[in-house]
Amino acid sequence: MNARKIVQRFLVPSFVVTLVYLFRYRCKVSPRAEVELSPRLKIGEGSQIGSFTKIKATDGDLSIGRNVHIGTCCFISADAGGVSIGDYSMISPNVCIVGNDYRYDRLDIPVALQEKTSKGIRIGIDVWIGAGSVVTDGADIADHCIVAPNSVVTGRLETGTIAQGQPARRVFVRRA
Amino acid sequence: MNEQLRSIVADTLGIDPAAVTPQTSREDEPAWDSLNHLRLVSAVEEAFGIKLTMAEIQEIATAGELEARIDRP
After folding, report:
1. B70 torsion bin: left (phi>0), alpha (psi -120 to 50), beta (else)
2. In this structure, are residues A175 and A158 in contact, taking their beta carbons and an 8 Å threshold?
3. A65: how many CB neighbours lie within 10 A of its CB?
4. Which helix (DSSP H) or strand (DSSP E) does residue A4 occupy?
5. By the 8 A CB rule, do A80 and A101 touch?
6. What single string gives the DSSP state of each residue in A110-137?
7. Which of residues 113-152 of A touch B (CB under 8 A)?
8. Cβ contacts (< 8 Å) between A171 and chain B: which residues?
9. C-alpha angle A54/A152/A172, rounded to 5°?
10. Cβ of A172 and B41 within 8 Å?
11. From CA A27, how far away is CA B16, in angstroms rounded?
12. What percent of chain A has pLDDT over 70?
């Protein structure tokens, strides 16, 4: 870990982070959240990040749209492929969005030491992700989707899909 | 009651077909939660070739009401 990462992660008091994001992006980051001061992290106006949520953007671009609500105790991590969350999306408590994976094709090297991969994660506009869900690397959730609590999203969800399960499967498609 | 509908309701909710009556309702049947309601509507739409509006989907609360909607042209 280089000096810049150490400063970003450990030496900036949380209330300073809260104030920076409030004045720079007009968004509300809880002083109890762990959000890095990183040029790779963009948060749209009116968005809110709840307490005890950790957001990592040191290894990839992470874009959070406008008026996005991220609940308490979430973990969102971007790697080379990036992570984007569209406007007006709601991320419920205890949701994990992890934008990387590990190779595991060798037994002589621990998985932790094998190469990391990152396809990136895209979450569209007006998406509601239920509490306790996990969004894995490569997931692509189109606009207006709803993910039921405790689901695991691993792939593509088409526009307006309501999905549930591990992996999340379509239950219904929203309509007017 | 329509036997095909009875079968769909029983399969979707995981209950005995004999227990499905027109009075079987979202309120009384624990398995008839919001997601199973949508599953039920999808299965009925596919089986009977109809398409319900969101308002209708939200209003339907019993198997009898679902059957009445199927019978409506």
Report:
1. alpha
2. no
3. 21
4. helix A3-6
5. no
6. -GGGSPEE---EEE-TT-EE-TT-EE-T
7. 148
8. 35, 38-39, 42
9. 125
10. yes
11. 52
12. 99
| Confidence tier at A1 by pLDDT (50, 70, 90) | low
Whether residue A46 contacts residue A65, with contact meaning beta carbons closer than 8 Å, is answered with: no
Q: What is the DSSP string of B10-70?
A: HHHHT--GGG--TT-BTTT-TT--HHHHHHHHHHHHHHHT----HHHHHH--BHHHHHHHH
Q: Find the length of chain A.
A: 176
Phi, psi of B54 (to 5 degrees): -60, -35
Are A123 and A102 in contact, with CB atoms under 8 Å apart?
Answer: no
Whole-complex ipTM: 0.83
Sequence letter at residue B72: R
Distance CA B33, CA A115 (A): 43
Residue A37 region by backbone torsions, left for phi larger than 0, else alpha for psi between -120 and 50, else beta:
beta
Task: Write down the residue that tokens 């950790």 correspond to.
Answer: A54
How do strand A152-153 and strand A121-123 relate by DSSP bridges? unpaired
Tens-digit pLDDT profile for residues A111-133: 999 999 999 999 999 999 999 99
Scanning every residue of chain A, which has its alpha carbon at the shortest distance from the alpha carbon of B52?
Answer: A175
Residue type, A163: A
Q: What is the mean pLDDT of chain B?
A: 93
pTM over 0.95: no
Distance from C-alpha of A20 to C-alpha of A13, rounded to nearest angstrom: 11
DSSP designation for A12: S
Instruction: Identify which of A113, A145, A146 has the alpha carbon closest to the alpha carbon of residue A131.
Output: A146
